[in-house]
Amino acid sequence: MPDQGKFDVIVVGAGFSGVYQLIRLREEGFKVHLLEAGAGLGGIWHWNCYPGARVDTHCEIYQFSRNELWSGWDWKERFPGWEEMRAYFDYVGEKLDVLKDVSLNSRVSKAKFNEVSNFWDLMTEDRRYLKTKFLIICTGFASKPFIPNIENQDAFKGEAHHTALWPQNGVDFSGKRIGVVGTGASGIQVAQEASKVAKNLTVFQRTPNMYLPMGQQKYTPDDNKRMKAELPERFRRRQECFGGFDFDFIPVSGASVTDAEREETYERLWKAGGFHFWLGTYHDVFTNESVNRTAYEFWKKKTRERIQDKELAEKLAPTDPPHPYAVKRPSLEQWYFEIFNYKNTDLVSLMEEPILRMSDNGIITSKKEYKFDVVVYATGFDAVTGGLTALDISDTDGIKLGERWSAGVKTYLGLATSKFPNMLMSYGPQAPTGFCNGPSSAEYQGECIIELLSFIRDKEFVRFEVEEIYEENWRSKIRELADQTLFPKADSWYMGANIPGKTREMLMYPGGLPKYLEEFRNCAD
Ligand code: FAD
Fold it and tell me: Once rounded to an integer, what is the mean pLDDT over residues 462-476?
């Protein structure tokens, strides 16, 4: 291969994780380069530019914790939209001169470890060849969009887009007939926007989703000033909290309090907005079925108050939950339930009326044909592992990563996988990832990577590798932890269950960020 660059470290992906690695490794004196498939920094915020795309962690902690960055940046909204996130990444890029070590529009298409040189050989889609001693994959949990295989899909003559592959110059919904397939975070965000301008909007729902009120707020310069005074403490708190947030579970059982006390707590959490009613509630909400049910009943009561039509209420907030409360990641909504009170908006429950196929005009269900100008696939991702297994990357036996993991993911600490020497992953499987605030994971797990690489460099080792026994133990630990919870009871992307044929297993480390960091500390020591 012609050599077009030789590095200590190559980082793949320019979201929070990759940018953090680049900045920190550069500071530690590594010769580092970053390859990013997209045309800008920001990771998912580059790709997800659909109408309404918005953060669901409050901005205070959905940013880097470096003083020189937050001190010079003011947020406009508590939950910023994609435009603001992009502007933030532009700011970070400029402030820290990130781009001088980044190749944009450079998708890594192939990676192979050279057993003789102990270097990785990398090839990009545009046929650049690079060599690196260490490879850090930061492809995120949402870089492989999933579109379900619907019969006759190509027949549709209108526009069809997945939310994460949205045209960068936008799609005009005004006066058009819009169909939205999927009702996770992206689906409801698009639907909220489309309902305002579309001629008509039809939302196709498979499973009712337990949306929480976002509690959006505009932030003034004074709000930002107040926020900045609190930030050092908020950032410090993250390492102590299960989800890397600045708040944590209530350390008492939801079963040990009176009904009135519980109701009062739930009211408070509900009013706080964001994820408080998820990761700030009683600690046993995910382990005790009856406590979980009280949370569901509260959620149902609050939600039904907002839906006028009784039949619709049953579809959106059923009498009995389809799965335990919030074992699928809840999405945050602003005016989602109200859109069904508008004349132009309808909900189709796919449980009652499954999609049979597409037609030239739109979508045919078991009941009728729905005609659209635009179909939006808000159908999520081959989450967590998809970005990794999409890479043409082989182990030292020549077996592709996707094949090695076909019967289940194998890693140690979610950081490394056997037979892939000198390779590490950030925000990948078997780590806190989907249970953790993204930037917190980028920084805390990121520091684990930096500590490991610095150690290896200082000891002048040329190669490191995980032994399979450690992977087996880590996998068992994750299974045991998951089995103590209600998470396996839902077909969620946490469980790999949203993708046909994917192994059903807990893809995250479900012990929380503090315990994860303890596990790393034990290993490092
Ligand atoms: P990403 O941001 O996903 O970045 C990965 C990058 O890798 C992408 O830019 C991609 O182009 C690049 N890449 C992939 N494959 C290749 C390749 N072969 N070659 C080169 N580059 C490649 N998390 C939260 O904590 N709070 C939130 O509010 C939140 N909101 C979200 C909203 C949406 C719409 C989505 C999709 C996810 C959200 N997440 C949220 C999760 C989010 O993934 C993390 O917050 C965070 O962005 C993860 O950063 P990352 O750097 O690990 O990965």
Answer: 96
